[in-house]
Amino acid sequence: MSRARVCLTVDFDGVSSWIHSFGEADSPTNLSRGLFGVDVGAPRLLDLFDDYGVETTWFVPGHTVESFPEAVEAVWAAGHDIQHHGWSHTRPGTYPDTATERADITRGIDAIEALTGRRPSGYRSPSWDFSPDTLSLLQELNFDWDSSQMGAEFCPYPLRTDWQAPADEPFDRGRETDLIEVPVSWQRDDFPAFAFDRQRGYANETAVFEMWESQFEWMYRNIDDGVYVLTMHPQIMGYGHRIERLDALVETMAAYPNVEFTTVDDVAASV
């Protein structure tokens, strides 16, 4: 059995998602959900990761870097990787033009570079959305990899450009680029499962954590050198009872032979 790799990833949105994606800038209650992630959730996650001595990947909007520099500095000081997640947590498909999207990505690069002293190599788009220009902008701005798409379960692959999806002609996959995709899944993301919605109510949390464990176990049995990416948000995963469940999940995965907890950057560099 080849080794299995686990990437614990954190989208440290702070309040940016409520302001820029959900249009809730005037809602103190929803903004407080983001503040919970900054003040309570993120420190709890850092403590858990420290307990296991694992290095994780935090995708941080520039808005979070500039709004809560001490909180983001704590992530960096603890030895975790900080990568790009937009500046404003705006869904790329909603930008009015290429220049606006480029400016937002560039501002996010500058914010991370000012805090860490190094340029981010990877990108995760807000809401896992691409515009028609996103890939070319990532190439232009010298990114090495992305972690936003879903063309595989547990295996990184090259992103493709020049694809075509006409309604009345066959789909054209386009050609491979040098950008590596480390794929994500809505099935391994805490936000759609646990973020409260008045229409949906609450998820069965026991079932969700059991699903995450079963997905890891299936990958371990069936995929040589598989890469398991779990996506978390401090404002969602940071509640005490979920931290306990996450602790149990990490403990279970760590008990398997030849399992490595690593960063998305290290995975992409090995492809």
From TrEMBL:
Residues 16-271 form the NodB homology domain. PROSITE patterns: NODB. GO terms for biological process: carbohydrate metabolic process. GO terms for molecular function: hydrolase activity, acting on carbon-nitrogen (but not peptide) bonds. PANTHER family: POLYSACCHARIDE DEACETYLASE FAMILY PROTEIN (AFU_ORTHOLOGUE AFUA_6G05030). This is NodB homology domain-containing protein. The lineage of its organism: Archaea, Methanobacteriati, Methanobacteriota, Stenosarchaea group, Halobacteria.
